Amino acid sequence: MRLLAPTPGWTAKADVVVIGSGVAGLTTALQIRAHNLSVLLVTKSFIDAGSTKWAQGGIAAALGPGDSPEQHEKDTLVAGAGLCELPAVKVLVSEGPEAVRKLIARGAVFDKSETGEIALTREGGHLRNRILHAGGDATGAEVSRALLAAVSNDPGIEVVEHALVLDALKTRTGRVCGVTLHVIGEGRRDGVGQVLARAVVLATGGLGQVYSQTTNPSVSTGDGVALALRAGAAVADVEFIQFHPTVLYMGEGSKGQQPLISEAVRGEGAFLVNDKGERFMQAVHPLADLAPRDIVAKEISRQMKLTGAHHVWLDARGIPDFAERFPNIFASCKEIDVDPAQDLIPVAPASHYASGGVRTDLNGHSSVPGLYAVGETACTGAHGANRLASNSLLEGLVFGARIAEDIAANLSEFENPAPQDANEFLLSPSIRGELQRAMSKGAAVVRTKESLQETLATLDKLKNAKTIFANLDAWETTNLYLLATAIVKSALERTESRGSHFRGDYPKESENWIKRIHQNLVADGSWSSTTEEVFNDLSFAR
After folding, report:
1. Same domain assignment for residues 334 and 440
2. Which of 60, 109, 151, 419 has the fewest C-beta atoms under 10 angstroms from its C-beta?
């Protein structure tokens, strides 16, 4: 299947095309250049407009005294609730420290302690201080700055901004050999064109815009995952949408990207209270307010339902240097006339991170030859049912480097695409709001069979709103529709609660569901589903 789009009017060529300019895409591009291969780096907006720069938290790596990859592995497995792919976790935690050192060598500057060493803090789910931060709550911005500086100094990387990836180009044998793009304002490449490449890497980030409220920027419409689905690739773990528990409540009716209140604030001593001023996390989990995100989000949702409130409160009044420690969060709070030094901060869960995505192996291969995925676009299995805090930036660094090595060692020759005879379709952008509201109502923190079926019925109705007017909004909306359908179908199939997937009608984990769900989009528009057993020894976590 393909998006309805004009015939490509121009052609470009590069050894590798990388779609996305966050930590995963930039790292992959730079590592590919180490092998003297040409890279075309495509980004939907400005090159620094993705999710990475918004990351307030940090990068988790076992760099501190007394810490080890084995301890980081254990914390990751516990948070992943039995569904982590153990080999992927081992790669993440063992190769993570060197990946961070390489990032520092590229110019990233992290906060220092009074002794001049890198300051390591703690976030939810971590039993050791292993989180590197920059600028207090601006780690992503610093990581992005350092990587972008390296990219801008490399003449072998051509950057194309304001370009939406549409679909994969495939050879007669089914191998991906490039992509189609729509470029705005790029001179001779204005409009729809095609890029021929020896390998394609999807690093388009998250899909938070499938919900009404999210911490993700407006560009996060899951374009890479949707492309992979249309190309025939399998996706996995898409039901595991992590909702950040403490997102600044901006008022009733607010939608789109919302400011998050970093977990690091709770790491510095802030705590949650309900409308009665009562702390509630201490009775829920041994780590209380620093419990894994899924547990905190579910309890906040429960507290809101009990009182009918739209939010709970975060008490950060005990942090004496809040404005200096968290300058960006402080500025967001002041926008709604909240002073964290004196006032409680209103917070509620919002869509934050997709633990699932394009199913890949440890070298980023999707199930379609020539097509790779990395970062939030991918599902390596490292996050399982719930990503451990600050493992996401690390994942982009580690697996971006692995993909580059694999591409360099196994690069195919350039091939011409076969005639594109797939079914084309496009949905009207007018359905986006209803789609997002349906997902927020029926497929958010707490789901049930009834709520999911209602959401699926809404999606089935919306698929009839087809259009022939191809434009950015229509392409994005069609991508969101595919992602929403995949999420709801997987959430219906998983009849248990595990990690960031919580079924109100099946509130407990089931031994029958220690497996992941793979989804495929079939050429006629139907869906197929298979399961994959997960074998991990988590006896230490019982």
Report:
1. no
2. 419
